[in-house]
Specification:
Radius of gyration: 20 Å
Distance between the termini: 45 Å
Helix content: 25-40%
Shape: globular
Oligomer: single chain
Largest sheet: 8 strands, mixed
Structural class: alpha/beta
CATH architecture: 3-Layer(aba) Sandwich
Order of helices and strands: HEEEHEHEHEHEEHHEHEH
Strand order of the largest sheet: 1-2-4-3-5-6-9-10
CATH class: Alpha Beta
Number of domains: 1
Number of helices: 9
Strand content: 15-25%
């Protein structure tokens, strides 16, 4: 007996037809020149839209909720999305690292992996690439942009841009950096337990710590002002990981900033959707 399709099935078919022609390929793996295996969440989008590389925050992975939410929204809008998980010195890393783990990775290592994944997208034929970072991932992207990225990189969007001097001012950081330099000059490779970023007990040798101490408020602002591509910042109005004057400092340097009132550093709860909307509005082709 012939049966008419239900209204629900008809509606579902119409929805599927209207969706952009993208396919989620899921996890892809690649080998670094060092031999370490790294992975990324990769989703193919419409050929006429840019590819977006999303970088997670410090010690996290591409599965971190804020990053995963942005990946979902951009993929649904038809963008090709690549969200790598930085190795942090560990082959096939697929989970976040605790602060108390021994951290041997450096800022240069991180930036080299960003460059690796940009080249990966280029080999896939993507001639327009947009960089999106969350939290500390923004600082790794800005450092990458300081090093002459290829012309295919067109834009950078910095979500919850970290203020590295929220807990230590420039003088305190300079003193700490000098201590690390002194240790390195003596050949002292003893592991140091120190407060770093969001970690109260971060364990690392002095040379590795020094690489991240290159970052300062001044270097971040200079990188933004001198960025070779258009740069914009999206902040949460209730982000407690930045100094009280961080927003005013960014605006005073002519940086484009959008604030989402009420949102935290992670844009969780209902602010997830506000972040998605702001992100899509800042990108071309939405």
């Amino acid at each position: 007996m012939n049966r008419e399709p239900s209204a629900l099935l008809v509606a579902l078919a119409c929805l599927l037809i209207s969706l952009p022609s993208f396919a989620a390929l899921g996890n892809v793996a690649a080998s670094l020149p060092s031999g370490k295996i790294v992975s990324a969440d990769f989703r193919v989008g419409n050929s006429g839209q840019s590819a977006v590389l999303i970088l997670h925050g410090f010690l996290q992975t591409s599965e971190f909720p804020t990053v995963a939410s942005m990946s979902d929204a951009l993929s649904a809008a038809g963008y090709t999305v690549l969200a790598p998980t930085l190795s942090l010195g560990i082959s096939r890393r697929n989970r976040s690292l605790p602060c108390e783990a021994v951290h041997l990775h450096t800022l240069d290592d991180d930036v080299a992996e960003v460059a690796f994944w940009v080249r990966w997208l280029l080999r896939k034929g993507h001639g327009s690439i947009i960089l999106v970072g969350h939290s500390f991932g923004n600082l790794q992207l800005l450092t990458y942009l300081d090093r002459h990225p290829p012309p295919a990189v067109k834009q950078v969007l910095l979500i919850a841009l970290t203020d590295v001097e929220v807990k230590q001012d420039a003088r305190q950081r300079a003193q700490q950096a000098q201590d690390f330099r002194n240790r390195a000059a003596r050949g002292d490779n003893t592991l140091i337990e120190t407060e770093f970023g969001a970690c109260k007990k971060y364990v690392s040798p002095s040379a590795a710590l020094l690489s991240y101490m290159k970052l300062s408020r001044r270097s971040i602002l200079d990188s933004l002002v001198n960025s070779p591509v258009p740069a914009a910042v999206i902040l949460g109005g209730q982000d407690d990981r930045m100094g009280a004057d961080w927003l005013d400092t960014l605006v005073a340097r002519g940086i484009t900033v959008r604030v989402i009132p009420g949102a935290s550093h992670f844009f969780d709860n209902q602010y997830e959707f506000d972040l998605q909307e702001a992100l899509l509005q800042a990108l071309p082709g939405s």
